[in-house]
Amino acid sequence: MENEETKICPYCEAEINANAKKCKFCGEWVCEEEDDMPEELNHFNWGAFLFNWIWGIMHGKYITLLYFPACLVPVIGSIAISIWFGIAGNKWAWQSRTWESIEQFNDIQKIYVKLWIILAVFGLILTIKFLSLFLFIANLEV
Ligand SMILES: [Zn+2]
What we know:
This protein is mainly alpha-helical. The protein contains four helices and two strands; from the N terminus they run E-E-H-H-H-H. It has two domains: about 1-35, no CATH class; about 35-140, no CATH class. Helices cover about 55% and strands about 5% of the residues. A two-stranded antiparallel ribbon has the order 1-2. A hairpin with a 6-residue loop joins strand 1 and strand 2.
């Protein structure tokens, strides 16, 4: 397990991991195409789909503000553009910053989905509370 493959950093000539994207000694990018997304991230980004423009701003992708004009198209507008964000999401997120690992990337992206589920559950509870309060008041007046 000790014979990890290494390569030489073209900038500072230090020996670094062969899979490294960035040299840990001088901080230079050492892969040819730093924007290339790993194959395993080739999947739908639910955080981008669910949070659309909020997710976009968090990732510096202001093109997601197109969500608002898209909403002018009734029903399908917001759904269609959210699907586009979901499809392009991982590529955008990958390019938005330097990720330590694919695991870190996935962990951060999962936070958005969890947050959305929490908000949806809270929203549902609040709706039920308000409805029952409303019904309670309505019954008082009968
Ligand atoms: Zn270096």
